[in-house]
Amino acid sequence: MGEGIVIVDASMTDLIRPALYSAYHEILPLRRSHRGTVRADVVGPVCETGDFLARGREIENVLPGDLLAVCTAGAYGFAQSSNYNARTRPVEVLVDGDTCRVIRTRESYEDLVRGE
Question: Contact at 8 Å (CB) between 109 and 115?
Answer without folding.
Answer: no
